[in-house]
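the two lines:
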Amino acid sequence: MDLNLDHFKGAGIALGILIALKVAVLLVLSKGAIGRIFSAISLYWKALTGQEFVRAEPKPKEAPIDHGPQLRLLGLLQRDASLVDFLMEDITGVEDGPIAAAVRDIQPKARLALKKYLEIGPCLDQKEGAQVEVSVGYHPSQYRITGNVPPQAPYRGELTHRGWKANKVSIPPLAQGEDGLILAPAEVEVS
Amino acid sequence: MTSSSHPRYVVGIDLGTTNTALSFSDTTTGDHPEVRDLEIAQLIHPSQVEARTLLPSFMYLCSEGEFPAGSLDLIWQKDRDFVVGELARSQGLKVPTRQVVSAKSWLSHHGVDRRSPILPWKAPAGSRMVSPIDACANYLKELLLAWNQKHPADPLSSQEIVLTVPASFDAAARELTIEAATRAGLGQVQLFEEPQSAFYAWIQSRGDLWRKDVEVGEVVLVCDIGGGTTDFTLILVGQSQGNLELQRIAVGDHILLGGDNMDWALAHLAAKKFEAKGHKLDSSQMLMLLAGCRQAKEALLADSSQESFEVRVLGRGSRLMAGSLKEELGREEVRQTLLDGFFPLVNLETPVQRSKAFGLQEMGLPYAHDPAVTRHMAQFVKRNAPLLTEKLTPLGKTGTLPSAILFNGGVLKSPAVSNQVTNQINQWREAQCLGPVKILSHSDLDLAVARGAVTQGLAKSGKGIRIRGGSARSYYLGVEIPSPAVPGALPPIKALCVVPHGMEEGTSADVPGLELGLLVGERAEFRFFATNQRREDTTGMWLDPLPEELDELPPLETTLPMEPTESGPVEELIPVHLKSVLTDLGTLELWCQSADENRQWRLEFRTREGG
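prediction for all of em together
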């Protein structure tokens, strides 16, 4: 997926300056950030003197952030597996039979879609229930350690959930003219 | 590297009724170059492109603003107002009035002007339309663009291209296929018959072993059942100077019947079950059911241990669960619907069922009325029985039935179906005290035709065996019999054979028996006929009266140009005789040759309807 960064461009001037200063201060403290400090300072300088900023019209308060790209996957899951319909339906009073029938239709399609667009797979390949070791310097996004945790890694424990991760994101991008906020178009049948 | 004298690639294109495919071989990679399939990038959904080896032969003519701007763009084309391939297929299920289907079958349909915009056939008045030729050209163009994208140094138009056509295509349909290829910008293409191509794919897959699989006197029935059409061809294994020799000896009619009919038959079966419980399905639910039934067909025909398949239909609109329905399709009823409905075991004498003749029949594609593939097969086999006797006797063999069978087309991927076809032939063979038919099996039935076309292209340059074909039909020119004019009655005509059955490609023949005087500056027009049922007629033979089995093709015409002289155009009557040519490219040409042999004019198929 091409993460669309364009919408950050539209942030207001004041916000830009503030962030620039804050980023500059924060990054001074971390090592190996000389380049980023430089760009923060230059952004600050540009904010003060740059013609494009000076001349810019005052922006509306709510910057038009395009959420389309973030919602794309949901739109695809609706298109391929009616997932939004499924989640939005009030099932109070619906019998188990039809629900099961629908799930049997929707779930395999949604599963196929996730495999296709994310090449989704477990974070760990071992079976759930297996004993695993989490070594020093593990990535905190990839593991959640629970239970009677000793003070320091490595940790040994039972794998209770294998986790999920996207191995390759290949979400077809939205075309220029598409409205990403539409998750499913209204359908009108002409008879 | 490109060299105009020696193309690097040999390319085979299968322009199918429902799917189009391209295979190719790089001739610079040795004596046995690998045959590969082109991955064709196409829209699967708006804004979603995927590469697949099959390009569904569908075109969808969208209206302005129907899809978000840019969502139909491909790398090679922006701002299109049409779609071809998978999206065109799936979108057209929802909006049939904008979908062009079976364009190829329209090419062989004489009742319409194939160069005028008549498709989609059922589009409401005022809709955008295209001609069958342009639709076919678009499919080929898409292959060309996909190819050129991947092989920028070796554009498709400079490669050696073999384009397959149904064996049942007559001279006019072949001519139009060439025209579509030209419009697509393919350059020169050679036509080749699909069943022969499938046979080549089999040879290719067997390597040298194929010579042991068949014997002299073997009669191979190529049985090709695709999504929308069914075709039969007979290939005879003969002998010449101790070597095996292959000859395509008979082709059947273009039968508009295939796997799609079977899916719909199951969908209607399932819909009846829902209806019996008071659930009337709407059109989108029917499509859901159709997709489910296709899966049921594949599952139940493939796996004999599975007793039933659940088909589900979700609720209408966004309420999925409250209205969701399910039904079971049992293995037995599916087998019954498909096998008894489409492949009943029949006697060889059983005629193909015809619909009652209606006074005024709706124009359109001549879909087969009889859904039984086996009855069509019986008709084909029976019709060619005398031919087999005639061909086998010199080889010291007897028999009037095929002794081997080669399957092609997606439907026959199912063992249940191919077994049933085998059983049918064996039943006929048993009745004549013959042993079981031999099965020549090969792998990918979807891509065999395109791959076989590549093998044929390679064979042409001396790498491999050739199948001798020759004209599958004989052709006739209609000439009016001088008679007193009677108001309201057309003058009777008789027919002159200009191309005999079996005339070889790459040969020509002077047609005796007709000296014509053509008037310069005037249009000369002839009625034109063909049949695949008269093998004895020879060039120059007159048929009077016109036999019933002749099918009329579009008329042929030519206009002799005025030649300017010093004293202005001269009216001149030029005596000519006819000459017929079967080209190496697989097309038929008829020429009027002046008596002094200095000048000739080609007779062309009439381009306008109604003339």
